[in-house]
Amino acid sequence: MKTFLKWFFGAVLLVIVLAVVLLLSLDTILRTVAVNRIRAQTGMDVEIGKFHLGLLEPVVTIKDLKINNPPPFGGTPFLNIPEIHVEYDRDALLKNKIHLTLMRFNLGELDIVRNEAGQTNLFALGVALPKKGAKGGNAGLKEFKQRTGLDFQGIDALNVSVGTARFIDLKDPSNNREQKIGIDNFVMKNVKMPADLAGLAVLVALRGGDFFSSMLGSDLK
């Protein structure tokens, strides 16, 4: 009997240790899954410094997310995002709805790259402008639902920081430019569709001066 009890308690202890190890490594597993999924969907090289999913609270935090362009754009940097922090409505998610109570997004660096064929990465990679005639961004919300199966309900508070934009011309490096945007903690309330980001877009345009128009003018026509 004593031998059985020792074996039983030893087995229970082993299960507890394994559970703790799994919980401690869960973020690492999820980080790997996230990296592989982004690579599979975009074809771009991805690095994530830290991925944290709250087990007792509805929180997701991603730190030091770096995305690099594919070979046609020389594997150059594309996005450097120091932090994405999301707090979401768990009850809404159970109903296949996305309702974020808080989202903090820090875009440290955006690199606009023009390759030797004259293509600009933002457009070649499918980062397209909203279509004319799409009222209030409803088309984008419908596409979001088609891709994810989830209804986007909105963001109660969106906190955005934007650091630096760079232009890299692989054919003529003399055209390379850098523009500091310098937006810190710009807060928007009740964001439910792309049109609600108009204030942020105007601020970025003002801080960027003629940077975006001069670099992308030929592509925006």
How would you describe this structure to a colleague?
The protein is built from six helices and six strands, in the order αβββαβααββαα. The protein is α+β, with helices and mostly antiparallel strands and 221 residues long. The chain is globular. The N and C termini lie far apart (83 Å).
Q: Quick summary of this structure?
A:
This protein is of the alpha+beta class and 221 residues long.
Q: What is the secondary structure topology, with strand pairs?
A:
Blueprint: H1 2-42, E1 45-53, E2 59-68, E3 77-88, H2 90-94, E4 97-114, H3 121-124, H4 138-148, E5 151-169, E6 177-191, H5 198-208, H6 211-220
Parallel strand pairs: 4-5
Antiparallel strand pairs: 1-2, 2-3, 3-4, 5-6
Q: Give the biggest beta sheet.
A: 6 strands, mixed
Overall 3D geometry? globular
Succession of helices and strands = HEEEHEHHEEHH
Helix content: 25-40%
Mean pLDDT figure = 80
Radius of gyration (Å): 22 Å
Order of strands, main sheet, comes to 1-2-3-4-5-6
Structural class: alpha+beta
Number of helices: 6
Distance between the termini: 83 Å
Give the tally of structural domains.
Answer: 1
- Percentage of β-strand residues: 35-45%
Q: How many individual β-strands?
A: 6
Name the poorly predicted regions: 18-24, 128-136
